[in-house]
Design a protein that fits this description.
- The chain is an alpha+beta fold.
- The protein folds into 2 domains: about 220 residues, no CATH class; about 90 residues, name from scop (3-Layer(aba) Sandwich).
- A 5-stranded mixed sheet has the order 4-1-2-3-5, sandwiched between helices.
- Strand 1 and strand 2 form a beta hairpin.
- Keywords: Cell projection, Cilium, Flagellum, Membrane, Transmembrane, Transmembrane helix.
Amino acid sequence: MAGEEKTEKPTPQRLKKAREEGQVARSPEVTKAIVFAAVALLLLFAFRAAVEQAFALLAWIFTLAEQPVSISLIIKAFWVSLSVAAVIIAPILILTTFASLAGDAAQVGLHPSWKAASPKPEKINPINGFKQIFSGKMLSTFVVNLVKTFLVGMILYSVLSRYAQELLAVPRADMGSALDISLDIFASTMLWSVILLIVVSIADYVIQHRAWMKQVMMTKTEVKRENKENYGDPKIKKARKELTEVDTDSERMFKNLSFCQMLLADGGRVLGLYYNPSFNPDPLVLVMATGSTAERVVTAAENSGMRVTRDSGLMRELWPVCRIEQAVGPSHRDFVVDLLNKT
């Protein structure tokens, strides 16, 4: 119905369809936080080794100044520099790639949406692209990035202020002391930056998830249509279920009838009774039926030669207190036992 409000929670099928179309609750801030935390942790442990390798490379390059310049020397310096840079940078690139994949997988799972990745005319429409630049989502992203930049700047200012005396002493310190001070500053900056990004990513994910849930909400008409497509018309389903239950109950009832020793019948109602002291000290009600089913039970009992007793008074007393496949109450036990023991 046109104009109908989306007030119903999305069904599993609706969520699956949205995922296939690439509509998922995804926050880029979560991925950024995971990548930044992973790289910060790697650099924290490899910072000293990376700096030492870089300084060793510079020292080696300075020694080349004493040698005559040649093509082979230039090529050698190039490959040595490239290998050192690869050793330093390659782990960061590999870790960044895997951390980025892990960040996306943590939010949307390992189920890529090829439909979302397929080219669509509206994706390359410059008008749509221009609209997205000034959309509310882009504005919120700009505000988030602005806030993050400001807070990271505050963190850096706070850390540098705390280590101001140590920084002033760096020019007069040896290499080991300078590295220790640099590592302390780096660790403090990374720690507070990671905490900041985690808080921002959690807040942004909550916002994105709420916006996504609002987007995939359904109208009552859509829910009814989907249920009808999946499970059929509710009225037909209910009628089919009732017929199945009736057939199952009737089948069980006629199976129980074969164990009964006597059938009490009156006024369109029947009770099938069974008594075996070695099995149960009280008589059991194995059959209980009314209407047309009761008539069929009486006919089946008479055809099998079972004793059928018609007693309206006893039926009025037993019917309200009897339950199918349960024992006769103690107030009527002795009378029913005597009745069943009569030949």
